[in-house]
Amino acid sequence: MIFVSYSWVDEKPDQNVLQLVAKLRENGYEAECDVMKIQEQTAINFIEMMAKNLQEAEKVIVVLSEEYKKKADSFRGGVGEEYRYIIGTIAKENKKYILVSFERDLEKVQPDFLSRNQVICLDKDNGFNQLLYKLNNMGEYSFPEVNPNKTIPQIQHVSAKIGKDIKYNIIQAFSSCNRYNLLVSAGEDAWEGDSYQLERSRCLTSYTPQMIKKEYDSFSSEQITAIKSYPCIFAYEDDVEKKDAYIGRITDLVIRGRAIKFYFQKHGILTYDDLHKFAFEFDIELSGSITELMHTHWTIKDIDLVEEIKNRDITIIPYKESAFEERIIPSSSMELLNIILTEDSPVKYMQELFANADEKTDARLRAMMRDLKEKGFLTSKWADDVPYIIDFNESAYSLIK
Questions:
Q1: How far is it, in rounded angstroms, from Cα 299 to Cα 297?
Q2: 91: alpha, beta or left, given left = phi > 0 and alpha = psi -120 to 50?
Q3: Which residue(s) pair with 2 in the sheet?
Q4: d(Cα 34, Cα 77) in Å, to the nearest integer?
Q5: 259 Cβ neighbours under 8 A, 6+ residues apart
Q6: Which residues of 91-103 are buried (b: 16+ CB within 10 A; e: fewer)?
């Protein structure tokens, strides 16, 4: 029941209030006021009636007027008793009372102890709709749930050293957790966009412990939220030109009977070599004639990927979504570009560098070459893990000039 409280004017009920009660009832709301109660009885006790309705009503609409303010501020009559009760309970029952008025000048109608409370002006075009929102405990505007995967901007540091600063800037976007998603595909460009579709038979089946299969068997909203909170490795099968993997996250899952579509965001690049070098640490099975990186699938690993990347000092290269986005060029990559531009045989120079490089230097050289290629400074072709053709683009010469 909704009780409408107000002040009579010149010993008569306020016609605006009676019309408001009628309008509410016509719109399906069980609204009542004192006039209805008076008509039900022959010798009604006003104070008792008001107190009973204020206590039992689910909502109380208080219609403020100049007459109401006078009686309330002086605590006179039934309005005064009612006002005393309202100011004693409004803080606790903050969804019960709705203050409205047919006056726009609120200073004239708001009693002293209600002067800081919101008042809906019913003479405005949307006043009645605002009242209905309050009666239904609804907001006028709907906002999305907070995405558990907070977007954190990457911080770029210019450094003579590759890897460490960049790596920590990338992985700080992820909270440390004891699981990560591994997605492997044979598609040549599977992870170059922002979505990819996998058959259900390849999802949480191969290389997935029975415990994890059971834990995520129903794809409930809670399970999907957990999956989206885990960092990801998006890897290519070994047969796909030794392509590098990506570090990122799943932003959404669309689940259908025959397949699952993954929407994802890439944050960094994990080199092909590091993926294989640290496969054991990442719990990726490489033994046998058919390895885990030779099979298209999605699984969840009980491994803290972020901690493994930190502990193994693994180089993560920043990923940029737009080729036109301004990017800071690492000084080491620029230094290498300067050197090979002045060499009579850039290919021979690079082959000698790779021949004498240890594993870490080798990874850095590949990262620098890839960086120069992605930024459009050069193109290259490789065989036996070394370049045999290097062609410079005009942007390389113009930048050096």
A1: 7
A2: alpha
A3: 31, 59
A4: 14
A5: 197, 198, 199, 200
A6: eeeeeebbbbbbb
> What number of residues does the chain have?
401
Cα separations (Å) of 21 from 10, 128, 131? 20, 12, 12
From the CB of residue 38, how many other CB atoms can be counted at a distance below 10 Å? Answer: 13
Residue 84: both structure tokens together: 């005393």
* pLDDT of amino acid 160: 45
pTM higher than the cut 0.85:
no
CA distance 18 to 12: 11
7 contacts 71 by C-beta, under 8 angstroms: yes
Cα(219)–Cα(225) distance, rounded to whole angstroms?
A: 9
Residue whose entry in the numeric block shows the structure tokens 């640290």: 278
**CB within 8 Å of 297: residues ≥ 6 apart:** 183, 184, 198, 202, 203, 205, 206, 207
Q: Which residues of the chain have pLDDT under 50?
A: 157-166, 168, 322-327, 401
Give the separation between CA 260 and CA 258, rounded to whole angstroms. Answer: 7
Q: Pairing between strand 195-199 and 231-236?
A: unpaired
Q: Could you report the per-residue pLDDT of 246-266, keeping only the tens digit for each?
A: 999 999 999 999 999 999 999
Q: Over the chain, what HEC string results? A: CEEEECCCECCECCHHHHHHHHHHHHCCCCEECHHHHHHHCCCCCHHHHHHHHHHHCCEEEEEECHHHHHHHHCCCHHHHHHHHHHHHHCCCCCCCEEEEECCCCHHHCCCHHHCCCCEEECCCCCHHHHHHHHHCCCCCCCCCCCCCCCCCCCCCCCCCCCCHHHHHHHHCCCCCCCCEEEEEECCCCCCCCCEEEEEHHHECCCCCCHHHHHHCCCCCHHHHHHHHHCEEEEEECCCCCCCCEEEEEEEEEEECCCEEEEEEEEEEEECHHHHHHCCCCCCCCCCCCCCHHHCCEEEEECCCHHHHHHHCCCCEEECCCCCCCCCCCCHHHHHHHHHHHHCCCHHHHHHHHHHHCCHHHHHHHHHHHHHHHHCCCEEEEEECCEEEEEEECHHHHHHHC
Supply the pLDDT for residue 325: 43
Cα 313 vs. chain centroid, distance in angstroms?
29
Token digits for 364?
């850095």
